[in-house]
Amino acid sequence: MSMHLKLDENLGNSQAQLLRDAGYDVETVYSQGMTSASDRDLIEACKSEARCLVTLDMDFANPLLFKPSEYNGIAVLRLPPKSSIDDLRELIELFLEGMQQYPIRGQLWILQRGKIRVYQEE
């Protein structure tokens, strides 16, 4: 069974295509007409659609606001300052590597150059 993903509005078609090419079912905030949705509405849509959220929005990295165990996964991509499209592609590829090795369901992943930090709930 393929993991279902939703890309936040800060990620574009090229990132969605990379994930689709890797075999994932991908929807985007943009394609679903949710570009002005609040963070809470977005994460609730992910929950109801059983999708993992992939975003650059650091608000989703706060487990007190968005408890990872309640969702199908939250992946926050942290770009370096003065980042390029190559930096973003590198994080998407790191995310894909992680997805092949570990289940993200119920977890918060914070991805930055070369590493994935997994938030563990107590």
What's the overall geometry?
Answer: globular
By DSSP (H or I, 4+ residues per run), the number of helices equals 3
CATH class: Alpha Beta
Give the name of the CATH architecture. Answer: 3-Layer(aba) Sandwich
Q: Quaternary state, please?
A: single chain
Description:
This protein has about 120 residues and is of the alpha/beta class. It has a single domain (about 5-120), classed as 3-Layer(aba) Sandwich (Rossmann fold), CATH 3.40.50. It is built from three helices and six strands, in the order E-H-E-H-E-E-H-E-E. It has helices spanning about 15-20, 40-50, 85-100, and strands at about 5, 25-30, 50-55, 75, 110, 115-120. It has a six-stranded mixed beta sheet, with helices on both faces. Helix 1 links the parallel strand 1 (about 5) and strand 2 (about 25-30). The chain is globular and about 30 Å long. The N and C termini lie far apart (about 30 Å).
Topology, pairings included?
Layout lengths: L3 E4 L5 H9 L3 E4 L10 H11 L2 E4 L18 E4 L7 H17 L6 E5 L2 E5 L3
Parallel strand pairs: 1-2, 1-3, 3-4, 4-5
Antiparallel strand pairs: 5-6
